[in-house]
Write a structure and sequence with these properties.
Elements (H helix, E strand, L loop, with lengths): L2 H10 L5 E4 L5 H14 L2 E5 L1 E2 L3 E2 L7 H11 L7 E7 L2 E8 L14 E3 L4 E3 L2 H5 L20 H13 L9 H7 L3 E4 L2 E4 L1 H7 L2 H7 L5 E6 L6 E7 L3 H13 L4 E6 L2 E6 L3 H14 L8 E5 L3 E7 L21 H9 L9 H11 L6 E5 L2 E7 L5 H14 L4 H10 L4 E2 H8 L3 H13 L3 E4 L6 E4 L5
Helix pairs in contact: 2-3, 9-10, 10-12, 12-14, 15-16
């Protein structure tokens, strides 16, 4: 949004897809308004404005705090895209809330619904149509003895390392808080999330065989594989074994940058770990198919059943507000510290691959499956040094700056090309390029339609 659009919204007042809130709104109230918009048709919350007082300046608010709060208070259902807008009177935040495919609650009481002027209860017809979360489903054929004590101890240790009070809670209370067990007809049984996090292998084979992960190691670009291992383990144990399998063939390249020695891996551990977690969190757990990992020397392909969420495409995935297919599993993995609570996983993968002179992650989507490809065409040592020097100069280096720099490392590019790489509109791309030019990071060549941009030579 632009400054002019903010003032236009103030003049028009709230509407069917617009909520105006002051900068001092309580997190709980903000969550109810966000859920109310999501339960209707989606829309935007302008935070830091009121029709009576105008712009209140919300510069003191942090975008990650906003997304964390909304994620927590809606049970892992909402992660809006947050946009900062500078006005002459101060900062306004725009929270872009997508329409939810299921009814979102926020706190106690009936689920909220934004009617265009105020919050009401979700109409009964809409609430009845809400689809269930497959990972929150209790398993009537299971019992607490289907949970592996060693895996439960692993989760407790992880909570203790993170300083979570859940580590000291009674076991049943801890499992309830993580959404791992549910009361069903007077007895406690594991949920799908519980079995996915701590189930015995035999119990997974009996109740959730689709939890299997198949790892294939290939020589060069050969379709045939030289090693296959099928893993039917809880997610934390599967992650550990997959790390062992990938690291057995993962090389690193030492690089000296200034006074520091950097190790650039063929496949960065944090990147492929995040990619694997995305496959678990976003997959369709009602599908009988398994997650597949194909390990080639020049790429790592991670495929999961279930297409991208409605509205998300490979082209807009970096900008689109995250939509998790399995909120219960995502919330549990978030509390355990496995996944990013504010939906920053895709950003993290882009940042690490580009910073180390690699190609960005590539998404290939089909109606019933998604493949994430992590490429390893080698790395650009000169570019890694350029980024390090630029970061030292700037103090901070945003992901957008990295995307532009990575696009320019092979030569000059036009504004339109950089706009596509950024997945931004031309106006927003031009503003970003102007900031980078002012910072001495990029240099224009030519004028008008012939103008192209190149990386600046940084002083040493």
């Amino acid at each position: 949004m632009t400054e002019a659009e903010v003032y236009q919204a103030l003049l028009a007042g709230p509407g069917e897809r617009l909520v105006l809130l002051g900068s001092s709104v309580a997190p709980e109230e903000l969550a109810r308004y966000a859920a109310g918009l999501a339960n209707r048709a989606g829309g935007t919350i302008l935070l830091g404005v009121t029709p009576a007082r105008g712009v209140e300046d919300a510069a003191g608010l942090e975008p990650l705090q906003l997304t964390h709060a909304l994620f927590e208070l809606t049970g892992g259902s909402l992660l809006p895209h947050v946009e900062r807008i500078e006005t002459g009177e101060g900062v306004v935040w725009a929270l872009h809330v997508p329409k939810s495919p299921y009814v979102v609650s926020a706190g106690s009481g009936p689920a909220p619904y934004w009617d265009g002027s105020r919050l009401t209860a979700v109409p009964a017809a809409d609430e009845a149509a809400a689809p269930p979360d497959p990972t929150a489903r209790p398993l009537p054929g299971a019992g607490l003895d289907d949970l592996d004590p060693a895996e439960l101890a692993r989760l407790e240790d992880r909570l203790r390392e993170r300083g979570s009070p859940l580590a000291a809670a009674p076991p049943k209370e801890r499992l309830q808080a993580l959404g791992m067990i549910s009361e069903l007809e007077g007895r406690w049984v594991p949920t799908v999330t519980g079995l996915l996090l701590a189930g015995r292998s035999s119990s997974l084979a009996r109740l959730l065989p689709q939890a299997e992960v198949s790892y294939y190691r290939h020589e060069d670009d050969d379709v045939d594989y030289v090693l296959r291992e099928d893993l039917l383990r809880p997610i934390p144990a599967a992650l550990e074994r997959l790390r062992e399998l990938i690291q057995a063939r993962n090389r690193f390249h030492p690089l000296t940058v200034g006074l520091f020695r950097v190790e650039v891996w063929d496949f960065d551990v944090e990147v492929y770990r995040e990619a694997l977690l995305n496959a678990f969190v976003h997959r369709d757990w009602t599908s009988p198919e398994a997650v597949q990992v194909h390990h080639h020397s020049d790429r790592l392909e991670i495929s999961n059943p279930g297409g991208l969420a409605p509205g998300i495409t490979p082209e807009n995935i970096l900008r689109h507000p995250p939509q998790r297919r399995n909120p219960a599993l995502a919330a549990a993995l978030g509390r355990l510290g496995y996944v990013e609570r504010a939906g920053q996983g895709v950003d993290k993968m882009y940042r690490l691959t580009l910073r180390y002179g690699k190609e960005p992650p590539e998404y290939r989507a089909w109606p019933q499956a998604v493949t994430l490809v992590l490429h390893n065409p080698g790395f650009d040592a000169g570019f890694v040094r350029w980024v390090s020097e630029a970061q030292n100069r700037q103090g901070s280096f945003t992901l957008d700056y990295l995307i532009v720099a990575a696009a320019l490392r092979r030569g000059p590019r036009a504004t339109s090309e950089l706009s596509r790489a950024l997945a931004l509109g031309d106006a927003a791309a031009r503003r970003l390029l102007a900031r980078m030019e002012s910072a001495g990071l990029i240099v224009p060549e030519g004028r008008g339609r012939a103008r192209r941009w190149r990386l600046a030579e940084l002083p040493r």
